[in-house]
Amino acid sequence: MSGALLEVRDLVKHFPLRHGHAVRAVDGVSLDVRRGETLGLVGETGSGKSTLARCMTRLHDVTAGHVVFDGDDITGLPRRRLRPYRRDLQMIFQDPYGSLNPHRRVGSIIGDPFAVHGVAEGRERKRRVQELMELVGLNPEHYNRFPAEFSGGQRQRIGVARALALRPKLIVCDEPVSALDVSIQAQIVNLLADLQRELGLTYVFIAHDLSVVGHLCDRVAVMYLGKVVEIGPTEEVYGRPRHPYTEALLSARPAPDPDVAWQPTLLAGDPPSPIAPPAACRFHPRCPMAQPRCADEEPLLEVKPGDTATRLTACHFPMGTP
Amino acid sequence: MSLLELADLAVSFPSPDGAVHALRGVSLTLDPGRTLGVVGESGSGKSTAALAILGLNRGARVSGRIGFDGQDLLSLGEDRLREVRGSQIGMVFQDPLSSLHPYYTVGRQIAEAIRAHEDVGAKAARRRAADLLRLVGIPEPERRADDYPHEFSGGMRQRVMLAMAVALRPKLLIADEPTTALDATVQAQILELIMRLQREYGMAVLLITHDLGVVAAVADEVMVMYAGRVVESADSHTAFHRPHHPYTLGLLASLPGPRGQRLRPIPGQPPSLLRMPDGCPFQPRCDYAMHQCAATEPPLLTVTGGPAHRSACWLPSGAVGRDDGAERIRARAIGRKAS
User: How close, in Å, is residue B318 to chain A by CA atoms?
Assistant: First the structure.
């Protein structure tokens, strides 16, 4: 068995608009998610990270390319044949308010996956739901309560419990702590780390908060306008960014310490629209180091001299080149 | 003399379940040209405080004193208050789209804001609007002045808001989560812009945020709020390195650190403003709670972390800092063996 639980190959996802235009949300992404790891996906609005996540879990059909899960190509599977894979591939969403039906009791929300997959019924289902509630730190006696009776952090625990119900192999977490206050965010981050250790889970973790990603992820992929511009072990990417966009992103975030001087690399302008991304290197119009070649030739995502095979960068003039 | 001076400010809202005490006994001072960062989580009262200063708390019961530039804003009539609000206090909020009128061009909105307070002609006001757009870094300002708010990106809209906020050279800028909705690289641009405008205009800035990184980057002084009260206030270095209040300590310990190092979240969640616990509102979540904490709410008193360092906690005044020594003092105070 290979080390990759999920393989994404040359994945493209376009959302068609009128007059032949399209939002090129994901525009040729290849990456592996290894068994047992946490892979972080970072990038700003329009980078395509959430679309990529939805393609990985097949919530979106893909325009081109392949998604291979556990050795099986699930790219073109119709809904019915996708069902067995849905058990293994779960998602947790950002909004703990919008993703839970307010009219249904929490026990029945968490038990949904059992109902859908016809796994456990009656008392057995209730027993397993209460086990899940316990596992994620909810009081099992609150089985009959409604979502409105829970705080934001507790609701996110409900979302986690529901995702865990069918013992998935992979959970894609799309901004799971972004809507939470700092003190509550830390509770959920610890919960996710504990569950991974106990249940041997693999995570794809999407966040715009780089410090949460730095804390939780083994590897990180940085996206810009539908492409991965850099991928590698978190410590290496954070400690020595090679793509100028990664560097700008990391330096933009002020450290929570007033004694550390904050010197962000300020980028010119806003990210361009994914409807008409710039030619060649998509970052070149905003890049502080751009040279003529960057506007002519698209850089490949590849190992740069001096880097290990686990580190890929899509830049003609990577930073920190010896 | 301080530019802004809140004394014992209280704000409550009537509700079917009883009064919601959003702000209780808040006092602060802000000097000209300085930046005060107000941090706290949802429901801590930080935005309520900003709105109270602006007189924008509809239906609220407000008491105490809001001293601004020598006058008490709470005693001013609506007309006079509107004058102060527009010209001497500028404001920016998290969502610029809801603060800009969708039917008017941004140039017209800025020009009208100027003409509401100054006797200038339409043409001159429009020229000043374009100058302001240039000042806040909007490319081709003469042309963009004729665009509508929806034609700008989130970051550019926040620049427009800042242009409007500083149009009349206010003495105070109130910025309530000004970068929360923005991407990281755009947030950096806007924070830099706020700091530049502050330097150029000599404004005081009241920056409200939940983001401790943002506070660390821009604030001179820090005020930490919890459940409608100020629980700690100090200069920025002291607040981050020699905090006294366990809530401040807890917030800092909750921040994600190096990979694999377990976070230390604050257990539980903030109390409901309708059902406040007895004594200290933080006591049910506090690692260091003692008998007296559940009995009496601690006042905001001077502690020893730095100059003008105050904390609302019954721990000894010398129990400041995040190191082992401070931890031993706290452990001894609550009669626990230090681990």
Answer: 22
